[in-house]
Structures
1.
Amino acid sequence: MPNFHTHLHSDRSPRVDLFVVGELNVDLILDQIQGLPELEKEKIASGMTLTLGSSSAILAANAASLGLKVAFVGRVGHDTFGSLCVDSLSMRGVDTTHIITTDGVQTGLTCIFTSGRKRGMLTYPGAMERLTISDITDEMLLESRHLHLSSYYLQSGLRADVARLFQRAKDLHLTTSFDTNWDPDDKWDTDIYDVLPFVDVFLPNDDEAMRISRKSTLDEALEFLSSMCGVVVATCGSKGIRARQSSKQFEIDGLSLNTVDAVGAGDTFNSGFLSKYIHGAPLEDCLRLGILSSAFSTQYAGGTAAFDHLDAFQAFIKQHDLTMRVHDTSIQTI
């Protein structure tokens, strides 16, 4: 089996553990709406939260709270929402030096509406579409141990060059991780296959994994995708996680909890996973901390509020024991 941590050790002494390339927007969360919006009609929500949003920023903020040295590159507009994004990341200890304030465009916003345990999202991309590969220099990469990119489908200015970016990172001996998030065009083009050979850890959810691989079952999707990259980890909501590395498949069931807010839970899984992975931990330990981080985050509103309570998180870890099932698919049973 190939080494889980490719290129993890080198002669470099980078100052940053995790370099995040991503989209920046605020989240406007409308809780428990009366019904879906309709033209010329008004609906009522029972609660509202305005907070730091975007898959990339939630991951970066929570990874910094968990002890990683994190830097971020992205774009915002000259507006209040842009200041909220940058200030929120800075308060978590994220290096925002490389965030570019962009003229002539507003900061992105995602409106999230919840009903029962389901949620929907409507996003104005704004400045996030202006990020390009020319904004990411080799000097930025060389000061980092690990590259992560989220929201592949939303970053239209960068998307065509993502494979080249990841190849550069591997050439410079960084480890890499990748989370596409949802394709709003619902096309799931196979150009993503050009990126995966340069990805150490691929982090879709179960539905995304099946759509990207064009397979009808998650097992088939994991087998297909893991043939192109180091390890695939599929988050499955309340059902837990499924992962595959070479011929080995890993499963952990979700925790049974009363959820306050699941916004950002998948991104928080990624932050917990990477906080172990970047320090060379075994895959099993990375998966366990990922799922505990994700579950804990659902106990608070918004994607980052949970990690204002690190003592409570440590107590949460001690209170919950996870069972992992490992199956080697190369071993045939009769």
2.
Amino acid sequence: VGGTKNVDPEKVHSLQPDLIIASKEENVEEQVMALAGAYPVLLTDIAGYEDALEVIAAIGNLCNRPVQATDLVNAIQAAFDGLSVTVAGHDAPRVAYCIWREPWMFAGGDTFISSMLEKAGFSNLLAGQKRYPALTLDKLANLAPDLVFLSSEPFPFREQHLAEVQAACPGARVMLVDGECFSWYGSHMLQAPAYFATLHHQLRS
């Protein structure tokens, strides 16, 4: 039906959906509002861990699957409760989480990524900034991060980018990380705690 920014209304109309789920961050307001005149729309606005759980419950209710949604929420919460035991008693490393290159962009404090960093036992170095601030590598180095995470998405960071950031921030440990575990909400959140625990194990080894 098109991409997040260019939904094809004719394809949507051909499907005659019972429900449209839209994202405030990803979709274009005008396109969503045009479809909302013809179909029920759930507009999600997920800026943190709790928001994601609330949306799972809301979708479960709208789709007449409240029990399944509750089971999923409980399973996610249990997995993160187990992770909290793993990270308890350790200082939270100060992390700059990079999502883009040229310009270099990072996750600010009002993002789902920042919320997941906190749940994972890290401290977002850019928590005081909004959305996805752009910084030069020189400015990043001045912030003296303990860790720099290069995400697998939306920019596909690879091994060749590690050296570039490491040269600019010699005092930090620079790592490639699975962006899906930090930025995908919904059922994918079940996989995140185990990955975060493995990440901490790597950092301590």
